[in-house]
Amino acid sequence: MGSKFKNLGLIGLGMVAGVAVSMQFSALAQKEATQPIPLKELQSLSNVFGLIKSSYVEPVEDSKLISDAISGMVTSLDPHSAYLDKKSFKDLNESTQGRFVGLGIEVGMEDGYVKVVSPIEDSPAYRAGLKPGDLITRLDSQPVKGLTLDEAVKKMRGEPNTKITLTIARKTEDKPIVVTITREIIKQQSVKAKIVEPGYAWLRVSQFQEPTVDDMVKKLQGLYAQDPNIKGLVLDLRNDPGGVLPGAIGVSAAFLPKDVAVVSTKGQMDDQNVTYYARREYYSGRTLSDPLSKLPEAVKNVPMVVLINTGSASASEIVAGALQDYKRATIMGTQSFGKGSVQSIIRFPVNAKEPDFAVKLTTARYYTPKDRSIQARGIEPDLLVEETAEGDGLNTFRSREADLQKHLSNDKDKEISRPKVDEQEEEKKLLELAKKVKPLEYGSKEDFQLTQALNHLKGLPVKLAERKEKDTDAKSEKSEKSEKTDKSDKSHGNHSEPKKK
């Protein structure tokens, strides 16, 4: 009972057709099994198993009954715990490297259909014109309804240069859209950067992967080579669904003082009660060299704004929370997703290189340096700025962690509850808005939130959102009035380190 197992800590969000949830490799000791086995309940399970074997309308394989029973037991816990067969486990491993075979779309389930959350830039799905909110109703000739998300994802993945035909239902179209897409080996570039105007730079992390820290260092080196006198930096984490924990620690450490606490975890197992610091061993793994040592010194003190929105989850929330706690950056945008739980991968049989199956189990919660729980609450921006001057666009209708059934609660304070709405009325509004809203290219001249971030860095007025609580209104008005004279400590690296654990 007291055996060891290999554990993979996950902080990603959602299933992806070609981009599965990312992970961090670590070895944890299994908690000693002190609870007695519930023999009466196991006897009930055995009775049902025997009943199905003897009386179901057609024969069912033992392995299917057992795997389905495990799957049901795990998935009933929370939205992020899951059963992984061999193929799913393999896909999960591949995704950490930012290289995989598939269509290149992040997906979820809605009303029994596969819903496109976001197509990956420059992927086959992106080039085929798939859009967020599209519902995939058929895969080749097979209806999606009746399939689990895992089953649908498996069908969308495959070998390079093979084709699959998708039938798409789009709210702005009267007829189904049929598109044939060729699967590819997709290399996702998780970091982008450019000088948006003289003296001001934009750095975007779209997902936290194993190469993210190294890629970020190269991009920052390039920015400072292009403009050695950068006066302000915008770190863009909008719609970043998360990824590997070392990536989040490394990105945070690039801008924070050495050795400060970045994030901590708390769970039942002793090995899950850990504080992670801005040190090489926490973000570069077994590599002896420190990739952050190659960064220009100016990076530690450059005034910063971090952009987040409802799609910013998990690892991106860890970065935003750490930079916010140390007042290293101004957090701007809208409230993040609120995915602050740790998922661990336990292989069965234990320590097998190619396990029979694995279980993805929620084992801990994440906390910011000031011990704020991210779970089901997310990160609230210092300056609430919506996606456009007219409002928050389609983000207004996006669900958050707190909207998910059986979500893990926030153990620190009361969760933010979202008001109940008339779903049919909201559907009409969404349809009307979808016809008007054009897809936003992050980092472009039309990027309203980026423009406001640059205004803040320059000490110019920022157009804040109107939908605020009274106390937040007062705080924002005060912040806006002081921008021209004060630039804000949050943008100038004024470090007041929280108490370490």
From TrEMBL:
Gene Ontology BP annotations: proteolysis; signal transduction
Biased composition (Basic and acidic residues): 464-501
Keyword match Hydrolase: yes
Keywords: Hydrolase, Protease, Serine protease
GO cellular component: outer membrane-bounded periplasmic space
Signal peptide boundaries: none
Top-level division of the source organism's lineage: Bacteria
Stretches for region Disordered: 403-426, 454-501
PDZ domain segment(s): 89-157
Keyword Hydrolase appears in the UniProt entry: yes
SMART domains associated with the record: PDZ (SM00228), TSPc (SM00245)
NCBIfam families per the UniProt record, alphabetical: prc
PANTHER family: CARBOXY-TERMINAL PROCESSING PROTEASE CTPA, TAIL-SPECIFIC PROTEASE
Protein family (similarity comment): Belongs to the peptidase S41A family.
Protein name as annotated: S41 family peptidase
Species in which this protein is naturally found: Undibacterium luofuense
